[in-house]
Amino acid sequence: MSLQIDLTGKTAIVTGAASGIGAGIYHALLQAGATVYGADITGSGDIQPVDVTDDAQVQSFVASIAQQHPQIDILISCAGSNVFTGAATTTPEEWEQNMQLNLRSHWQLARCCRPWLQQSGNGVIIIITSNHAYRTIPGCFPYNVAKTALTGLVQSLAAEWGPQIRTVGIAPGFIDTPGNQTWFNSFPDPTAERQRTINLHPVRKLGTPAEIGAWCAFLSSDYASFSSGVTYLIDGGRSALMQDA
Q1: What family is reported (predicted)?
Q2: Does residue 1 lie in a domain region?
Q3: What is the number of domains present in the chain?
Q4: Residue 2 falls inside a structural domain
Q5: Which terminus of the chain has fewer Cβ atoms in its 10 Å neighbourhood, N or C?
Q6: pLDDT tens across 20-29, in order?
Q7: Residues 172-225 pLDDT 10s
């Protein structure tokens, strides 16, 4: 008998669901049978337009779902954006923008969903951070600071809101998304830079949104019921290398 992840009967929220990693997560949970509500600042089709830095919009979005469902079982907080301005040149306004989007919004969304996740009795929060939470490169400040802080948020929510709610984090490395392609396109030879990056990974490939989605489906299921308070670094072995070869 094959092992299957079945989230039938579960109600899930996914933010940042219109593209990239968020879209991969959204579709993976749908394939697993969950009822999924997607949110994104742009919105398209079934994805509702929500600015996760706006508390009123977040509260309205969650309340509209709660009116239709007595409980929320899964929250996957993925919405975020690169803010790469450098430690010396970042303005206070850029710092604040980064912290609002890439840190505070995850906490605020979790707070809004908490009563319904508790009613589930087996609620799951998954916070999407980044490999920049563990290792970074020059010029990626203050994004990396917020992503590092999210590992602490995962620990605190797990410690304070368990056992009714499990909280875990996922820190993806290079994932093949439009955002990463934009970064490759900033080089004189995007194709060469893409291949150079691939060669830095022991698995010799970039990750895909579908792979992160599959991780989220597993972590949302009963198979992962002993997992809480930890952030999983999924980077194709990139962090295992002491030096670039």
Answers
A1: Belongs to the short-chain dehydrogenases/reductases (SDR) family.
A2: no
A3: 1
A4: no
A5: N
A6: 999 999 999 9
A7: 999 999 888 888 998 999 999 999 999 999 999 999 999 999 999 999 999 999
Tell the residue number behind the tokens 């996914």, with chain if given: 14
- 48 beta partners: 39
Q: Is 94 within a domain?
A: yes
Q: Are 165 and 118 in contact (CB under 8 A)?
A: yes
Look up the domain containing 185 and give its range.
11-235
DSSP-assigned beta bridge partners for residue 171 = 233
List Cβ neighbours of 32 (8 Å cut-off, separation of 6 or more). Answer: 5, 6, 7, 8, 217, 220, 221
Q: What is the pLDDT of residues 36-65, one digit of tens each?
A: 999 999 988 899 999 999 999 999 999 999
Nearest Cα neighbor of 147 from 18, 32, 233 is 233
> CA 145 to CA 152: how far, in whole Å?
11
227: its two tokens: 């997992």
